[in-house]
Write a structure and sequence with these properties.
This protein has 188 residues and is mainly alpha-helical. The protein has ten helices and no strands. It folds into two domains: 59 residues, Tetracycline Repressor, domain 2 (Orthogonal Bundle); 120 residues, no CATH class.
Length: 188
């Protein structure tokens, strides 16, 4: 039991050190040595848990994904715009409440894969609300919306959350629905 606690604490020190370094450095400039100095752990301790800083970053990202409450209790099917806005609001509220972590992770220029994974996890349910009658149109609509939400989310965070999570959720849905207004007959 004490070993598990010690492992958790050591990994937390390493993760916190990496995030601290990530606040002022691009990820490719952060070395294992840098992380170990800030965390005050030996390199051998680092390598006991992680292969490199990329593996560390992935572990942090997985932790973030696992801790987002709306992802674990999302209904299997969303049939109304209101349900979707409620889910988005909870998701964006969580991001706002954990703004330091998300500011660090989302605003990193080399973190497109994590941003896409994060938004995909929520927007996957949006596909049910799509009004597209063509698979190709539905795919393009989805890609457009995911890319747009990533951009909007980055701006919302950079501007220090100028509107509430609820208003932001409504904006995301409204913009998504506008994208869905493309004439289906053009894609048949």
């Amino acid at each position: 039991m004490a070993d598990n606690r010690r492992v958790r604490m050591t990994k937390k020190l390493i993760k916190d050190a990496y995030l601290e370094l990530l606040e002022s450095n691009p990820s490719e400039k952060i070395s294992v040595t840098d992380v170990c100095k800030v965390a005050d752990v030996n390199r051998s301790t680092f390598y006991m848990y992680y292969e490199d800083t990329i593996a560390l970053r992935h572990d942090i990202e997985n932790d973030v994904m696992d801790q987002i409450p709306v992802l674990s209790d999302m209904p299997s099917e969303i049939t109304t715009d209101k349900q979707f806005v409620d889910i988005l609001e909870r998701f964006f509220s969580y991001i706002e409440e954990n703004s330091r972590m998300f500011r660090i992770l989302i605003l990193q220029p080399d973190n497109r894969a994590f941003n896409r994974r994060l938004i995909d996890a929520v927007l996957e349910k949006y596909r049910i609300l799509s009004r597209a009658n063509s698979e190709r149109l539905a795919k393009y609509e989805y890609v457009f919306i995911v890319s747009g939400v990533i951009g909007l989310l980055g701006a919302w965070i950079e501007e220090d959350f100028p509107v509430s999570a609820k208003k932001f959720s409504e904006l995301v849905l409204k913009m998504g629905l506008m994208a869905a207004e493309i004439e289906n007959s053009d894609w048949e």
